Every structure is written in structure tokens, then in C-alpha cells.
Amino acid sequence: MDIEEADMRVIVRLLGETAALPGGLMKKKVHVLDGLCDLAGSMEWIWMLSYSASQTRFLRRKLAENLPLQLDLPEADSPTKLLETLPPSHVIASLRTLDSTTESKILLLRNPSESGYSRREIHLTNLVLDEIPWLHWSEWPNPQPLLDSLPPRQRLTMDLLLLGLGRKAIATQMRISEGTVSGYMRELYQQYGVNSQAELMRIRPYQSTPN
User: Fold this and answer.
1) The predicted structure's pLDDT at residue 95
2) Which of 5, 13, 47, 107 is the most exposed place for a label (fewest CB within 10 A)?
């Protein structure tokens, strides 16, 4: 299937922006996948990294809702559950084996209320996913730079949340109002792509991630 000049220009522009983007591999990966979602009319993308039959990590980006990246989703929100609700015509998948124990899968998903992907959209998306192998490489988002950049009071709030303290206890410890603590918590949840203290504790921001 031939590629029209307008589509080629979009792809070249996307790759050019990515090449000039400061930051590491993860930032560039997110930029390319966001661009592919725009090109193909996808509501979100998911990166699944399986280290073994029993360990799979997820990175999810809901563009339609303008949400931050979500790491290691709860079982109820896992991509496996989501895929059960979508017909094959609304999923574009790219699979790559990284080594004898590690497998990478990138999924682009379309809103089920819309028509399925066209041949053109599938062709263009697969072209980029097939020809850019580093989109599958297993560098995982490292939370340490984000931790190091947190203001002191947010960092202390993070410490106390991970110890299991509630809003009132944190306010008492820090000698600030519960409303201020709530504000710190909202900002932390947004930065880490979680919705609750339990989810924040589940992703273990202080634990190093697999290589």
C-alpha cells in the first residue's frame, strides 16, 4: 500500500520533533506514541512489558481524557480487561521479543463508539512501530528524578503517605492544615498517575525498577 505525501509529511514531522526533543528514551517514546494516536485517531495507547509468565508491567496513556501516564495498573484496570471489551477492528498491536524472557507489546486503542481502524491507519501505524525498534526497548520510567525534583514539603508528604499515615495524621506531623495536605496529595497523585494512597503505595516510588 502506497503512502500519500501528506501522511509521509506527518510522519517525518513527528520523527523530526522526536529527534530534537531533549530528554531520555522514555520521553521520546511517549512523544512518538502520542503522535501515532493523533495520526490514527486512537483514544489511548498501552505499553506492556512481560518479564515472565507471572510478571507484566503496564504503561498507559489516555489521550482522550488528557490524563498523565499511568504505571502498573490495578488488576481491575489492566489492559487485559480492557481488551475484552474491544473488537479486534479497534486494536492495533505491535509485538516484539526483546530476549529469552522479555516480551514487549504496544497497543493503540480506538473508542468503541467509533468505526474501526481503516487500512490506511493500520498501515501507517504498523510502519512506524515496525521500523522503530527502540519503541519496544525496555527502559522503564524511573521515578527517582521526579522524587528528587519534589519540593521539600511534597517530599515529606510522600514519605508519610508511604508510611501509611492518613491526611489528618500528616497534617498533625507537618503542623499544617488538612486542606494543604489535600493539595499536596492531589499534586502527587497527578504526577504519578494514580488516584489514591493505596495506588501510590502499590507502585513503590522508592523501589528501583527492572532494567
Assistant:
1) 92
2) 5
Within a domain: 189 = yes
H-run or E-run covering 182: helix 178-192
Q: How many CB atoms lie within 10 A of CB 80?
A: 12
Residue 210 lies in a domain: no
Report how far residue 201's alpha carbon sits from residue 197's, in angstroms, rounded to the nearest whole number.
6
The C-alpha cell 527502559 sits at: 139
Q: Copy the grid coordinates of residue 129.
A: 512501530
In 10 A of CB 8, how many CB atoms? Answer: 13
Q: How far apart are CA 27 and CA 75, in angstroms?
A: 26
Q: What percent of the chain lies above the pLDDT cut of 90?
A: 38
Residues 125 and 36: beta-carbon distance below 8 Å = yes
- What digits encode the pLDDT tens for the residues 164-201? 899 999 999 899 999 999 999 998 887 776 788 887 77
Query: Does pLDDT of 157 surpass 80?
Result: yes
CA distance 45 to 62: 7
Task: Report the candidate in 9, 74, 81 with the shortest Cα–Cα distance to residue 39.
Answer: 9
* Number of domains present in the structure of the chain: 2
- Could you tell me the residue range of the domain that residue 162 belongs to? 144-203
